[in-house]
Amino acid sequence: MRILVMSDIHANYTALEAVLKDAGQVDETWCLGDLVGYGPDPNAVVEEVREIKNLTCLMGNHDVGVVGRMSLETFNGDAKRSLLYHEQVLSASNMDFIKSLPSKPKVRSEATIVHGSPRDPLWEYILNSTTASLNFDHFGTDWCFVGHTHIQCSFTLKSNSDWVTAEYAKPDAALSLHPKLILNPGSVGQPRDRDPRAAYAIYDTAARTWTPKRVAYNIAEVQERIRAAGLPEKHAVRIGEGW
Ligand code: ZN
């Protein structure tokens, strides 16, 4: 099976469209959460995601915030402003869809999928090998796919040791899967690794490979919509620079 793995779309419809087109035909799509937050297009993104066939979609921390299951005070000021806007504009049926999403890790054959980390599904950021090493004992599958940091990367637990290495992804270079790995497809709608192109990954279950991908999209038109909606200027600037 060829599986599209994506995360952190963050209400960026133009980036989502570019990813779906670039990924082409896939057997399944796994989305690791944060459909909303930051961007200008919460309804368009949720509607597009709802249309995806063979979808497994998790809830991210911004999704939990927008449906009122977590105080928006836990978010920083600029993130909170977007969530308040999304709370107002999201249609009732799109809100219901978000509410229906699971927030706990899910196991799919050889992979565990989760938004933040296996030991703290909504909030922990796996940004370095130290945090990664504390998480390898918290999933029973050979590999775990995480989002939340918006950084396309991989963490490898060396066999017969507790040594963990971290690597930034090389787009289009297929990684051979072996126990035990934590892999992050990066963010569709707000990459933070200084590469502003939309990020995702293709997981091939037969070849046992993970291929990180990047695709350019029309960032200027999303920035225009951010400004037209009166959302923080910071959100427009950062998608242009990838931080
Ligand atoms: Zn996010």
What does this structure look like?
The structure is a single chain. The protein starts with a strand and ends with a helix. The model has no long low-confidence stretch (mean pLDDT 97). The protein is an alpha/beta fold and 243 residues long. The protein has a single domain (2-241), classed as 4-Layer Sandwich (Purple Acid Phosphatase, chain A, domain 2), CATH 3.60.21. Strand 2, helix 2 and strand 3 (55-57) form a beta-alpha-beta unit. The strands form 2 sheets. It has a 6-stranded mixed β-sheet. It contains 8 helices and 12 strands. It binds zinc ion. Residues 8, 10, 34, 60, 148, 150 line the site of zinc ion.
Mean pLDDT over the full residue set: 97
| Total DSSP E strands | 12
Rounded radius of gyration (Å): 17 Å
The span between the termini is 32 Å
CATH-wise, what's the superfamily? Metallo-dependent phosphatases
The CATH class name reads Alpha Beta
Q: For the largest beta sheet, what order do the strands appear in spatially? A: 3-2-1-11-12-9
**In terms of per-residue confidence, which ranges show pLDDT below 50 for 5 or more consecutive residues?**
none
